[in-house]
Write a structure and sequence with these properties.
alpha/beta, Rossmann fold, five-stranded parallel sheet, globular
Length: 176
């Protein structure tokens, strides 16, 4: 199974993923695109080279997640669907019945406050992603990290898993 957390930068996905690992019964793996980006060396790249490199990183990340799930592992994915091709790539790769798509929401002022407090993100990143990350509009379950703690959101998702809808959000989007 894949629990797919989608939200902007600084929305609380990584904190939520950590709490999910603590409250879920079976073994689960947290796979974050940030971890994949951190594995990359940092040579000087032109903007065009960086764009190509980032695209290959995202595609590789998607294939790594698909491989872990295909091998029978449960995966919590920490993702940002701010570009339509990312969603389409995942829809092509993942078994849609096995994906629980979670919308991780947070109001923009709180995202901006968190981004400033973190200090490790480009200024305005969450604002640039805000209108695009949830544009597909379909989720199995949603949470607002400005209203609920990561642990409360993890319990909401854990309690939802045995009652997954049919068809799932991924099944509906793949069909449409």
């Amino acid at each position: 199974m894949i629990v797919f957390l989608n939200g902007t930068s600084s929305s609380g996905k990584s904190s939520l993923a950590g709490e999910l690992l603590a409250v879920l019964d079976a073994p689960w793996f947290h796979m974050s695109v940030d971890a994949f980006h951190a594995m990359r060396s940092r040579p000087e790249l032109t903007p065009d080279q960086l764009h190509v490199t980032l695209g290959k990183t995202w595609r590789g990340f998607h294939r790594a997640v698909a491989g872990m799930a295909a091998a029978g592992n449960n995966v919590v994915v920490d993702h940002v669907l701010s570009e339509p091709w990312r969603l389409h790539d995942c829809l092509d790769l993942f078994a849609p019945r096995d994906v629980v798509l979670v919308g991780v929401h947070c109001p923009l002022p709180e995202l901006e406050r968190r981004e400033r407090a973190r200090g490790d993100r480009p200024e305005g990143l969450a604002a640039r992603q805000f209108d695009r990350v949830h544009a597909h509009g379909v989720y199995d379950v949603e949470c607002d990290t400005s209203r609920a703690s990561p642990l409360e959101c993890a319990h909401l998702i854990r309690d939802f898993l045995p009652h997954r809808p049919s068809p799932t959000a991924f099944e509906r989007m793949r069909r449409d």
